[in-house]
C-alpha cells in the first residue's frame, strides 16, 4: 500500500474494539453469526443489484468474510477489502476451509483502495461508511463511482439517523436498552462507542452525498431510525 498525505483521514486507525486481536475477531465472528442472516442478506443484495455469474463485486469492510463467501458462489469474482489485516487473514482462512477460491483479499479501505483492471460491476458496503467524517464520505463515494462501469450498481447499508433530532436522548437510550435485551451488554457498549466516537450522519445528508458523488438513488429504505439501505446506479 502506498503512503498517503499526512492530511488525509487515517481510516486505518482503531476505534473501539481492538480487531488486531484474533480472539476479538473470533468473538466478533461468533456474534455476527448469531445476529445476522447471511443467506437473507446475500439474497437481498444479489436481487437488488441484479448480480450475475460473470460479474465482479467489490466489498468494502468485508470483516470476517461471511458475505463475501456467500456472494462468491454467485459471481465470477469478489474483491474483499478491509482495514484490518487480522480480519482479512481470518476471512481468507474461512474461505479456504470452504473451498472458495474466487475471492481476492485487499488490505485497504475507501480512501486507500487502488483498483486495477476493468471497471467493476458492483460495489457493496455494509455498516462501514459511517467510520468516515462526512467530507471523507463524499471522497469515498466519488472514488467508488470512479471504479464502477457506467450502469454499475452500488449497494450501501449503513447507520444513518432518520429519527426526530429533538428527541435524540430518548432515542439513543431506547436503542441501547433494546440492544442490551436482545444482544447483551457487550454489544450495547460497542454501540455506545459508535454513537460517541464514529460519524453516523443524517438521512438528508447521506442522500445529498450520494447524489453529489454522481449516483442516482434507485431505492432507499430507512429502518428503526438508525439504519438505511440505498441501491444506487452510476449514471
Summarize the model shown.
By secondary structure, the chain is α/β, with parallel strands linked by helices. It has 8 helices and 8 strands, in the order H-H-E-H-E-H-E-E-H-E-H-H-E-H-E-E.
If you had to describe this structure to a student in words, what would you say it looks like?
Strands 1, 2, 3, 4, 5, 6, 7 and 8 form an eight-stranded mixed beta sheet that branches. This protein has 235 residues and is an alpha/beta fold. 42% of the residues lie in helices and 24% in strands. It has a single domain, classed as Vaccinia Virus protein VP39 (Rossmann fold, 3-Layer(aba) Sandwich), CATH 3.40.50.150. The model has no long low-confidence stretch (mean pLDDT 93). The radius of gyration is 17 Å and the shape is globular.
Count of separate structural domains: 1
Task: Give the N-to-C terminal Cα separation.
Answer: 30 Å
Beta fraction: 15-25%
Kindly report the oligomeric state of this protein. Answer: single chain
The CATH topology: Rossmann fold
Descriptive keywords:
Rossmann fold, 8-stranded mixed β-sheet, 24% strand, single chain, 235 residues, globular
SSE layout and pairings?
Blueprint: H1 22-35, H2 38-49, E1 56-60, H3 66-72, E2 77-82, H4 85-97, E3 103-107, E4 120-126, H5 134-147, E5 148-161, H6 168-183, H7 185-197, E6 201-202, H8 203-212, E7 215-223, E8 227-234
Helix pairs in contact: 2-3, 5-8, 6-7
Amino acid at each position: 500500500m502506498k503512503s498517503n498525505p499526512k492530511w488525509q483521514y487515517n481510516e486505518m486507525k482503531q476505534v473501539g474494539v481492538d480487531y488486531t486481536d484474533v480472539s476479538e475477531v473470533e468473538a466478533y465472528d461468533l456474534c455476527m453469526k448469531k445476529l445476522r442472516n447471511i443467506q437473507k442478506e446475500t439474497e437481498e443484495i444479489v436481487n437488488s443489484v441484479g448480480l450475475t455469474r460473470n460479474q465482479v463485486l467489490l466489498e468494502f469492510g468485508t470483516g470476517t468474510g461471511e458475505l463475501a463467501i456467500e456472494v462468491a458462489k454467485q459471481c465470477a469474482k469478489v474483491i474483499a477489502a478491509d482495514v484490518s489485516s487480522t480480519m482479512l487473514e481470518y476471512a481468507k482462512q474461512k474461505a479456504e476451509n470452504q473451498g472458495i477460491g474466487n475471492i481476492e483479499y485487499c488490505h485497504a479501505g475507501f480512501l486507500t483502495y487502488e483498483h486495477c483492471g476493468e471497471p467493476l460491476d458492483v460495489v457493496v458496503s455494509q455498516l462501514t461508511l459511517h467510520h468516515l467524517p462526512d467530507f471523507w464520505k463524499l471522497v469515498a463515494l466519488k472514488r467508488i463511482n470512479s471504479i464502477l462501469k457506467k450502469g454499475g450498481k452500488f449497494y450501501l447499508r449503513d447507520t444513518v439517523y432518520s429519527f426526530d433530532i429533538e428527541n435524540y436522548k430518548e432515542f439513543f437510550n431506547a436503542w441501547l436498552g433494546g440492544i442490551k435485551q436482545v444482544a447483551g451488554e457487550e454489544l450495547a457498549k460497542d454501540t455506545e462507542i459508535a454513537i460517541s466516537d464514529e460519524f453516523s450522519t443524517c438521512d438528508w445528508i447521506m442522500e445529498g452525498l450520494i447524489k453529489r458523488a454522481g449516483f442516482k438513488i434507485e431505492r432507499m429504505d430507512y429502518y428503526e431510525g438508525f439504519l438505511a439501505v440505498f441501491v444506487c446506479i452510476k449514471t
